[in-house]
Automatic annotation (TrEMBL), chains A, B:
Binding residues for Mg(2+) 4: D54, D104
List of residues binding Mg(2+) 5: D275
Protein name stated in the entry: Thiamine-monophosphate kinase
Domain PurM-like N-terminal: from-to ranges: 52-170
Annotated binding of substrate, by residue: H82, E325, Y401
Lineage: Bacteria, Bacillati, Bacillota, Bacilli, Bacillales
Binding site for Mg(2+) 2: D75, D104
Pfam families in alphabetical order: AIRS, AIRS_C
Highest taxon above the source species: Bacteria
Entries under SUPFAM superfamilies matching the protein: PurM C-terminal domain-like, PurM N-terminal domain-like
Organism: Paenibacillus solisilvae
Gene symbol of the encoding locus: thiL
Length: 406, 406
């Protein structure tokens, strides 16, 4: 917990009365983290020493059926790159910065357990704004059973930066990598794709048209004192896009699905959809040296996303393939176990969509355009699918989504 | 490894010909991390999956005498807060961002093992500058036997931010906390204090007087294309302050000392001196509910620091007590074992200075001014010490150093 060299050791912020506040690092950490998590949660995750010493101390949990291995991942959110004051409230930033890491652990088939949180805070932020960031972070931690065990707080010259590290465990030898996909396997995803990108599309448009400022009063979003509040959820509800906005702000990683799938032993590759279905499919294809064929008719489509795409004259397919930040899982599974896995997840109330097949290399990803027209997205269930033999096949580009290029 | 929302997925940088370069995240990670560490190093630390999947997978190492517990710490360095283009070259930033975390593991008595590296890179940086940052990071990793197992790379609007997480291990129940100091214990440090602060003092003065720009050509410091190079070590050598500058740029955490001390079982509290001797002593005093008395005559003094302090008419004591970033260890040990511990460390070529005593609370830190005059710092070994009974005692403030207040 070192805090400064060129600046002072304290964190300087502006309070609600627009006055400068100097918090020393320990005061600020206490203010934001004290008594936020139950002793049970910390004990359950084997925490011996939590926040407040040089390092956290945790006991290695015992695997039921044998040894466990550790999983470790870090993910960083940077103001203006991953969010701004209009697109996300502070609590959303806290939630999502942890959720993105929990998703990385799920993408290996593991159990998330411990997190460390590094927050670099600009001077213009209110202490209460950072408190709200931690509200979201702790809410996500409770949702996924993660113990927050430590962190670092520093000043930042201009932009908020949140770097979260998550440690998890997996039964020894059972981590699911990207490289195991085999010809004949079935491709699956554990939830709809493209919703987060559509939500962001709406948020940026709403912010540009001044909806954030015009919206009815709500707890001030945007941590900086005096900055415009974030676009309120009420405005998204009124526009029929609340589910899309929440998909962007509060992603829900597929941890339960990951654990059920990992236990079957038939999943041959797994990725979380952080950078878009196309990009993640390409990673599996290249790592495994195989080709993935995705069927357009099978891609899980959100009705509200399709409706919004129609309104703004955009193809939902662009968001579905290239949108990213959905934090569902994309993977491949032995063909003989695909339906049984789907049934097991359904019994647990979890979706699993079988969206394509694996064939022998060279590495590539293609889309089988087996819908008769783009319009039929809105009448999906009654759409006529093109006969298999006739359906055209198109290569899917190895790229992510560029929000500025729209 | 998610990379963007509002920006693009690629990392945009400026190359040496001042042209914009777009690197996708995987290209950039490969460019900076491929083949940088031996397979032996990774195997030795039980790495099953390293950089390149959603999360790293590592085997829990086996303790020789029983179960191990895990230690986890994160530390972040922010451009303009912890360094700038004049004070540190990119490789120094890489070294120090890992060293600060290694020091946190040492401060619990543990063995550092694995690191995750999150780098947020401003557009103005050259790819070669980030490569040099990783040079320093990997050099530090080799020095301390740490396997780099993963990370995240994002864009940053203006300032470089490096957040490093280190995982280590400690024999179960043996982690040394801050709260165990007992009346009668002896206070120790494992190296000189104040050198890093003195080095930074010189660096800021040199930068202000234009020594960075006037210095002979060297590999460009400062990652931003076109930014002034960092103050060269040759200039520090010419000024007789190279050791001070290196103490600031390349701190050497006391891992070996920590392990030898932890094995004795007589160390009752331990901290690393990241925020200054005074601040760390206060942490132990408050956590343990005791009072620490430090003897001025016993504080380990660097000759080059004392000489530089004399030249700039500063009291070396200010740097020694409040300077910070020394990354030596401050702790307390049972009085009966202090000399034997010192002898064991000496036999291993490691310093240990017995600098004071613990007495019953209330929590506090005082300095016994047992040197006859401030001048005697320069004639330390021949100085006349005030007789014990006469030596005045002064409370030591609970604060860090403010470089701007000088």
């Amino acid at each position: 917990m070192a805090c400064r060299v060129l600046g002072t050791c304290s964190i300087q912020l502006i309070d609600s009365r627009k006055e400068a506040v100097d918090l020393d690092e320990f005061e600020s950490i206490r203010l934001w983290t004290d008594s936020r998590q139950s002793a049970e949660r910390q004990r359950e995750q084997g925490v011996i020493v939590g926040i407040g010493d040089d390092a956290a101390v945790v006991e290695a949990p015992q695997g039921e059926g044998g040894t466990l291995q550790w999983l470790m991942a870090v993910d960083t959110m940077v103001e203006t790159v991953h969010f701004n004051a209009a697109t996300m409230a502070e609590a959303d930033v806290g939630w999502k910065s942890l959720a993105a890491n929990v998703s990385d652990i799920a993408a290996m088939g593991g159990v998330p357990r411990h997190a460390l949180v590094s927050v670099s805070v600009p001077r213009a932020w209110e202490p209460a704004g950072i408190r709200r960031l931690y509200d979201g972070l702790y809410a996500c931690a409770e949702q996924y059973g993660v113990a927050i065990v430590g962190g670092d707080t520093t000043s930042s010259p201009l932009h908020l930066v949140v770097a979260v590290t998550v440690m998890g465990t997996i039964e020894a030898g059972k981590a699911i990598r990207r490289a195991g996909a085999q010809p004949g396997d079935v491709v699956f995803v554990t939830g709809p794709v493209g919703m987060a990108a559509a939500g962001l599309h709406w948020l940026l448009a709403a912010a540009a048209s001044g909806q954030a400022a015009a919206a009815p009063a709500q707890p001030a979003g945007g941590g900086a004192a005096g900055s415009p509040p974030c676009v309120p959820l009420a405005a998204a509800e009124a526009a029929g896009v609340a589910a899309l906005v929440q998909a962007h702000r509060r992603p829900a990683p597929s941890v339960r699905a990951a654990r059920l799938l990992a236990a079957r032993g038939t999943v041959t590759s797994l990725n979380d959809v952080s950078d878009g279905l196309a990009s993640e499919a390409w990673e599996i294809a290249e790592a495994s040296g195989i080709s993935l064929s995705l069927r357009e008719s099978r891609l899980p489509l959100s009705g509200s996303m399709a409706a919004y795409a129609h309104r703004v004259h955009t193809s939902p397919l662009e968001w579905m393939l290239y949108g990213g930040e959905d934090y569902v899982l994309l993977g491949t599974i032995a063909a003989g176990d695909a339906q049984a896995a789907k049934a097991e997840l359904a019994a647990a109330g979890l979706p699993m969509y079988l969206i394509g097949e694996v064939s022998a290399g060279p590495a590539g990803v293609e889309l089988i355009r087996d819908l008769t027209s783009a319009d039929s997205y809105n009448q999906r269930h009654s759409a006529q699918y093109a006969a298999e033999a006739e359906a055209p096949r198109e290569p899917i580009a190895k790229r992510g989504y560029n929000h500025f290029a729209q």
